[in-house]
């Protein structure tokens, strides 16, 4: 059996309406929530790490996110339906 994590809830590490997941080159798991527009990050064992923040240190909030993907350089691409755009995020570890 594989790893199971999350569950229903509105606290860090839980989900209300997760719409997609992505895995980066360091095996971190990103879960995108539609209603809150947030991205939660977990390690490969399912341990909650953090919620993505914006450049000002506040919670990153996306508008009606639907899909997420990563490229080989570690950039994250998010389709934001209400803006009719793809947002690209670069991370600094």
Uncertain regions spanning at least 5 consecutive residues: none
**Count the strands?**
7
Strand line-up of the largest beta sheet: 1-2-3-4
Largest sheet properties: 4 strands, antiparallel
Radius of gyration (CA) equals: 13 Å
CATH class: Mainly Beta
Number of domains: 1
CATH architecture: Beta Barrel
Average pLDDT across residues? 89
CATH topology: Thrombin, subunit H
Question: What is the count of helical runs?
Answer: 0
Spell the H/E element sequence: EEEEEEE
Shape annotation:
globular
Q: What is the end-to-end distance?
A: 31 Å
**Fraction of residues in helix:** under 10%
What structural class do you assign from the helix and strand content?
mainly beta
Sheet-strand content, in percent, reads: 35-45%
In short:
With 93 residues, this protein is an all-beta fold. The chain contains no helices and 7 strands. It has a 4-stranded antiparallel beta sheet, with no helix packed on it. A 3-stranded antiparallel beta sheet has the order 5-6-7, with no helix packed on it.
